[in-house]
Amino acid sequence: MISRIHDLTADLPPWLGNSLTAIVVAAAAIVIAIVVHILFFRVLKRIAQASESETDNIIVRRLARPTRYSLIALAFVIAAREVPALDDVWQKIAGFVLPALVGWIALAVLRALVKAMEIHADISQPDNKDARRRRTRLAILSRIGSFLIVFVTVGLMLLSIPGVRDIGMTLVASAGLAGLAVGAAAQPALKSLIAGFQMALTDPINIDDVVIIDGEWGRIEDIRTTYVVVRIWDERRLVVPTTKFLEETFQNWTRESAELLGTVNLHLDPLTSVEPLRNEYERLLKTNPLWDGRVCKLQVTESEPYSIEVRLLMSARDASEAFDLRCEIREAMLAWIRENQPEAIVRRRIEGTAAAEASEG
Prior knowledge:
By secondary structure, the chain is an alpha+beta fold. It has twelve helices and eight strands. The strands form two sheets. Strands 4-3-2-1-5 form a five-stranded antiparallel beta sheet. Strands 6-8-7 form a three-stranded antiparallel beta sheet, with helices on one face. A hairpin with a 4-residue loop joins strand 7 and strand 8. The longest helix is centred in the first third of the chain and has 37 residues. It is elongated and about 110 Å long.
């Protein structure tokens, strides 16, 4: 093919003939690479679709684009061996293209594996403690791995520039005081990065955990290496530094289990008959689908001169259901008291000598 192109361009000036030859050969190499890629991945997609696992489909989809350009680069290298003009061009860009393609493929493989593992960590199930822990570790380690791949890739690309390589060697030779200065300046960033590693290893929080931090109730929506996003109950987002979860106290309502106890406090008159309240409370709770059947208890927990405090203790599968259950039980109990035992409503009684004498007179 190349000799045929040379014959066709023999009458042209050498520089023009060489340029046309390089362009034609490069175009042919690119077309062949694309055709090979299409045929190869068509077979791979059929094999992946025939498999029951979704992991194969994810990996094939993620690798489609980077491998296409890698095949084009490979075809370009093969063509450059036969065409000196192409070889000169390739030598100038190889230092940038090869690290970029390798880094792209490594990043695609990492994200494909993480995505495949996330499928097996379904957090929509009621008992999702282990799934949430895996999701959290995958999220943190994925971001750390992506950062390292990008960092190494960019470093290799920069090292292909002779001037940058010389500067790098000079900096390494005089890295004593410079290292101390950079270390001091980068201390907050390094601290956050180390905190991200600690978060992945010790998992004080996981994705979808219910926490109370800075007086706010919310769920862990996203965990980054430097910060954590907490979705507040009213759809606000609280962005918290990662170090805060390692250095300060916070409440984690789902650390070991999503099951939770909830309370409703009623302030009633001291003359209230408690046993009918207890019977009605047990009836309401047993018919409510939000109750998980574990805890059902009514107790008088406080006594004041003008009122008593009745605590209703109940249990639910998670924090959201516990909150809704408390609201429903509170509303139902107040309605029952108003209709069936109005004397339980708190009253302020005032009795005195003047009032007694006036009544006698």
